[in-house]
Structures are given as structure tokens and as C-alpha cells.
Give the backbone structure.
Amino acid sequence: MVEQGKVTDLFFTVGPAQTGMRVDVFLAQAAPSFSRSQIKDAIEKGGVLVNGRPPKASLLLKEGDLVVLHPEPVVEATAVAQDIALDIVYEDSSLIVINKPAGMVVHPAPGNPDRTLVNALLHHCEDLSGIGGVLRPGIVHRLDKETSGLIVAAKTDEVHRGLSMQFEKQEVQKYYVALVWGHVREEKGEIALPVGRHPVDRKKMSTKSRRGRNALTLWKVRERYAAATLLDVEIKTGRTHQIRVHLASVGHPVVGDNVYGGASRLQSIKDARLTAEIKAFPGHALHAAMLSFLHPGKSERMVFQAPLPDALERLLELFRSGPTGANPVYKPREMS
């Protein structure tokens, strides 16, 4: 258990079923209220002991091993509050759900010291969970800077732990809309490829990583155009850049995503107006349209939806006016 300003060591004994398990994997299962990144940091900083000695994350455990987790004290949030407008979808005393615009960074980092979602939240909210540390107060999960849509932040440590546990157990439902390059032939499918750090370019992720983690993305076709396809996407895991990497790996990078192959497809567009709109598009054509989780304080399943951004709607209208035709009304739907 971790409380603001107080730390309690957690003790675990390895049983027969955990024999041969890596210590980081063991702790992720034994202490689900802590994120994998928190456990990784604890191991690297000496906050984990196995039989009295600090282990490497890859240490394989034996039956009877004593594992001690000494979490760092929760640090009170100290990022600077800034008066930045927020599109608030829902708010109560425990949490807040935001429709984040493309181009907004979630939390301060090198190169983006301020004007982030965290800075805006600190101005708007009286309290935020301190579990994320001084630069990520309240942040339970993230969206890429250039991805728009729904994101939830916690106002209390208890709610933060409850939401984090749901993310770890894959109990949070996350649905996206993605405009991808090319003609997707099948009506629906799945991509089950591990995602990890790119073996050469460390700023990118890849399905060819030597240490990739299992990742599952489900997709279903919503509309087809001459040069692109609109997909409903559901992710069962939350790996960094997962949707972008997975879709690019099967030959359909997200429109506007120049990191994972989208730029090279622009030359296939012969319409000057559509080309100009794509170049001016403020981010990736990827939108977190639906988010559903169990409210930790109310034990009630909550479902939130965010309409497509105006810029994406304009882009779709231009694609629809091309050779392929129909103009259906967008409505989020569940995957199956």
C-alpha cells in the first residue's frame, strides 16, 4: 500500500507456480496496483530486493525466494499550472475525462517543457493524483502528441491505482478511428505482433524488436476510398505507438504519420486540394473516439465518446468526393 507521504514495504514469497518467472513479471502480477514502469524504476533504483540483494529485471525466481518491493514515496505534483482551454467530456471529484486535441503533449518532457495537458489540468483541478510524479500528476495513460481524443486523469491516488489496475488487466475498452493509406481488402481482422523499441532507431517502435511485448489490435472497415480506408480500431494492449506500428506493419500506415511510412503515400494523390489538406492536417488521422472503464469510486461502468475532429471530417469529405462515393454518417460502434 502506498499513501501520500508514506511508504510501506511489500513482501512476497515465490510459490511453485511462479518458479522460473522474471522478477519484473512476478511483481507486475503480485502488485497490480503498480504500473510496469513503476516496477522497472524501482528495480533500477534498488527498490526491489530478492533474498536481500538487488536483482536485475531479468532474474529468474525460484520457489521460496523472498521478494521485497520498497516503493518510492509519492511525490506531490509540482509542474506549473497554465491557463489552457480544455474540452472536458466528464468530471467529478475523482477523475476527469478530456477530449485532447492533436498537437497537445500529455505531460512535460525534454523539448516540451510546458503548454501540455498536465499544465492545463493543474490550472483547472484543485487536486491531482501524485502517483505519476512531479511531471505526470494524474496521468494514468497517454496519447501520442499528434493523436486526438479521449484521455482520463485521476484526481486521487486511490482512483489512480484503481484505473491503473484496470489498464494492467486490459479491462479498459479503447476504440479509435484511423484513416489509413491503401485499400484494405478484408472487412475485419486482427494484428497480433509484438511491439518494442526499434533495433536501430531508438526513437521509434517496431514489430521487429528483439524485446518486443505482445500486442493485439483489432480492426474493422468503416469506409473505403480510392486511396485510403477508414477503420474502427480496438486495442487490447497499450504499447507505445501500437496502432501506428501495427497498421504500418501490414502496409497501411496512418495518414499524416510521417514517422511510420505515411509520407511516401502522398504522391499517389493527384487531387491538389486533397494533397494540400493532407499536408496541412494537424497531426495523425488517428482519433481515440471511445473510452470505457469501471469508475473506481462508483463501481459503475462508464462509456465516453468524442466526435471526430473538424479537420478529420474535412479530410474525409474530400476523400468521399473522389471516385468511390457514399457519404455515410459516422457513428462509433463496438468491435466484434
Remarks:
- Residues 11 and 291 are 35 Å apart (CA to CA).
